[in-house]
Amino acid sequence: KQEVTQIPAALSVPEGENLVLNCSFTDSAIYNLQWFRQDPGKGLTSLLLIQSSQREQTSGRLNASLDKSSGRSTLYIAASQPGDSATYLCAVIVTQGGSEKLVFGKGTKLTVNP
Amino acid sequence: NAGVMQNPRHLVRRRGQEARLRCSPMKGHSHVYWYRQLPEEGLKFMVYLQKENIIDESGMPKERFSAEFPKEGPSILRIQQVVRGDSAAYFCASSPLTGEPYGYTFGSGTRLTVV
Fold first, then answer.
1. Which string of DSSP letters, residue by residue, matches B36-53?
2. What is the C-alpha to C-alpha distance for residues B60 and A5, in angstroms, rounded to an integer?
3. What is the mean pLDDT of residues A86-92?
4. Are B52 and B76 spatial neighbours (Cβ–Cβ below 8 Å)?
5. d(Cα A89, Cα B42) in Å, to the nearest integer?
6. What is the tens place of the pLDDT at every residue in B14-36?
7. Touching check for A19 and chain B: CB below 8 Å?
8. Does any CB of chain B come closer than 8 Å to the CB of residue A13?
9. Could you give the CA distance from residue B15 to residue A26 in angstroms, rounded to a whole number?
10. Distance of CA B69 to the CA centre of its chain
């Protein structure tokens, strides 16, 4: 059974810092991996999608890496801003028996202090 | 493109009533997924549907919960005889195809409160 773990559960940093959020998964047989952002009381916003054949994806100040063999992904945020404060969710896309679904970690709650 | 539309945003039901949650996928998306987020818990898969077809309902509670995605209209998640433990945020996601690197697009969710 696929399980996704995110460390740390919460992180507080001063504005301007570079930071890394970690995600690990137990079964390397994933299809893709997707990082999301969730603001309090809101839905999920997709940040980056990494296909299983890729090792990283970049979008603006965000860079996500994927190491399937070790079951790890990291989300790097450069020059953090207060507007980056949110919960960041890592999800692996698994396929089985004609079905496809996301398996989520519990998230890392990020606070960027001005 | 209006994105994935869910309504209502908030729903309050008394114990024993029925809750109906609606989801309209993004234009051009034919796959719909429902997820539930309990307080202090991660999002959990409930069901995966295509038009007029349930593909995978392995995450759905066996009783009181049902889902459909008719040929016309939105997908509906129906919870009969709600209990306090059903209070959660319910999210719908859609994708154009499986097996393609499009990822998932989520709606804003329906927050169900059972009183």
1. EE-TTS-EEEEEEEETTE
2. 23
3. 96
4. no
5. 9
6. 999 999 999 999 988 889 999 99
7. no
8. no
9. 38
10. 10
How do A108-113 and A10-14 pair as beta strands?
parallel
Residue B44 vs residues A12, A53, A107, B91, B97: alpha-carbon distances, Å:
26, 26, 13, 10, 21
Mutate to test the interface with A, among B21, B102, B104, B108 (most CBs of A within 10 A): B104
* CA atoms of B77 and B66, how far apart (whole Å): 6
pLDDT surpassing 60 at residue B99: no
Amino acid present at A47: L
- Contact yes or no for A90/A7 (Cβ under 8 A): no
Under 8 Å between Cβ of A8 and A110: no
Burial A33-72 (b: 16+ CB within 10 A, else e): bbbbbbeeeebbebbbbbbeeeeebeeeebbbbbebeebe
End-to-end CA distance of chain A: 41
Q: What tokens were used for B75?
A: 């997908």
Give 3-state DSSP helix, strand, coil % of chain A, rounded to 5: 5, 60, 35
